[in-house]
Amino acid sequence: xxxxxxxxxxxxxSFLIPRLVRGGHEVVxxxxxxxxxxxxxxxxxxVEQVVADRQREDAEGSFPDRVLGLGGEVVIDLVCFTLAxxxxxxxxxxxxxxxxxxxxxxxxxxxxxxxxxxxxxTTEPFGEYGIGKYEIARLLRQETASGGLVTTSLHPGHIxxxxxxPIGPTGNLDPTVxxxxxxxxxxxxxxxxxETMAHVHADDVAQSFECAVEHRDQASGQEFYITAADALxxxxxxxxxxxxxxxxxxxxxxSWEAFREGLAPEHADASWEHLVRSQSxxxxxxxxxxxxxxxxxAGETVQEAVRxxxxxxxxxxxSPLVV
Length: 323
Prior knowledge:
By secondary structure, the protein is of the alpha/beta class.
C-alpha cells in the first residue's frame, strides 16, 4: 500500500517508517524538514520526502489537499493537535482515503480510579492537551460509526527511547535527578511515591500503528491505549534507576509544597500533571484486536533512554552505569 505519514521524522516515525518499508509498503513522509530521524536505518533511503509547514497550511486550509494529492491509501497523522485540523481532514479524505490513523495521548483519559485502566473505564480528561486529544478521537469515532471515513485512534503513553530524555522518576524532565541518583544523594519525592507513570518505547508505539494498518477491519472506528505492559510508580522507578548506577536509592518523602521548592516551575508543573493522573493501562484490547505485543517493559524503555543520554554526554552522572 501507499502510506502517507505526517510528522514521520519524530519519535514515533523514526521507528514506524522503517517498519512500514520493511513491510513492503510505499511510504511518503511529510515533515517540516528541520529535523532528522532519531535512528537512521537504510530503509529511509526508500522513503519519499515532502517538506511542508503543517501549521501554516492548516491556517490557509490547503494542507488536506496537499495530503490528498499524494495519493495515499492510508494516512497516518502523528502531529494533529486541534479539532479544526482533524475536522478538515475528515471532510477532505472521506471517500478518497482508505484509512486515517490518528496519534492521540493517554491524557485523553483523566485521573485513574481503577487500575489498570482500559478503553472502557477511563475517566473524563482535563487540561487543554488531554481534552483536545479526547475531542479529536471522539470526532473520528463518530465519523466512522456514521459510515464515513475509516479511522483509528492510538493513544501512546510517555514515549521514550534513544535520542531524547524520558519523563524521570518524579514525573518531569529535570536532568539533575540522574545526578542525584547516580551519586547517592537524596531525591525528594512528593508524598509516598505511589503514583504511576505509563511509559512506552517509541518502537512499540510504531508497532501499534503498523498492527492497526495490517488489521484495518478490527481497528476501524476503535481507540487503543498504547503503553508498556507494566508501569512504574515514583519510588519503584527511582529505586530501579539508582540500581543502574550500583546505588541504593535515598528517597525523602515530602509534601507537594516542599517538593515544589527549589524546582523550576516547569518541572514542578510537569510533575503534578504526570502524577495527579497516576495512570496505568491494560493492553488487552490492543493485543486482542491488533496483535500488539510490546517488546519493552517500562523499565527497559527508560533504561535505554538514560543509557543513550549518558553515552552522548547529555546528562551529568557521578557513577558509570553498571547495567
